[in-house]
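Researcher: Structure prediction, please.
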Amino acid sequence: MKALHKTLDVLDLLMEKGIAGVTEISNELNLNKNNVFRILITLEEHRLVEKEEETEKYKLSTGCVVLGYGFIHKHPLTKLSIPVLKGLRFRLGESVNLAMLDDKQQFIIYVASEETIKPVKVKPRIGRRYGINSGVSSAKAIKRALKGEAGFVFDYEHDEKKGISGGACVVRDYRGRPIAAVEVLAPMYRMPLKKIEEEVKPLLEDAALDISLKLGYWD
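Model: Predicted structure follows.
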């Protein structure tokens, strides 16, 4: 089991950094270089990582994409959510995301997305992971729900540096536990605060309720 934990730690590190060499991984995870090299060779054999010839550093490979694709399209949450996301994207004309809370309640992971057809788009978040204490709206809404706030908690996102705005609403499972959030993001000039309050928030709350009911939620 220790070997498995080390292997998963290496994958987590590569997911966060994007690319890293043996020495860097060894230092970051406090692992012996020989152990790191053996782990990377095994992962490479299973097409989960690949080595860049020019830099001799490692990065996640297409095998991870295949695993992620299988998860996204077979998990009940994403299967039931995608039609709702499509409908929400159609109504608002903006990009819609679904973020899932991890089992340890430490991170959110973006597992589904419906992008706007407008030429100016917000950078996609699918596949990205954020800490529960981060400033993204999905994390903020879920964190408030985990602290005991009832109902379909909504929170805002307003990032002047990146020029994006939007909001997210909590999705609950059949036991009423917060497990995900449905989120809308757009360039700030297309989504001022008034529009979020009057148009986006009610539709997000309806979408979150719809997904929750499909999961068996009963108030």
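Model: The chain is about 45% helix and 20% strand.
Researcher: Thanks, that helps.
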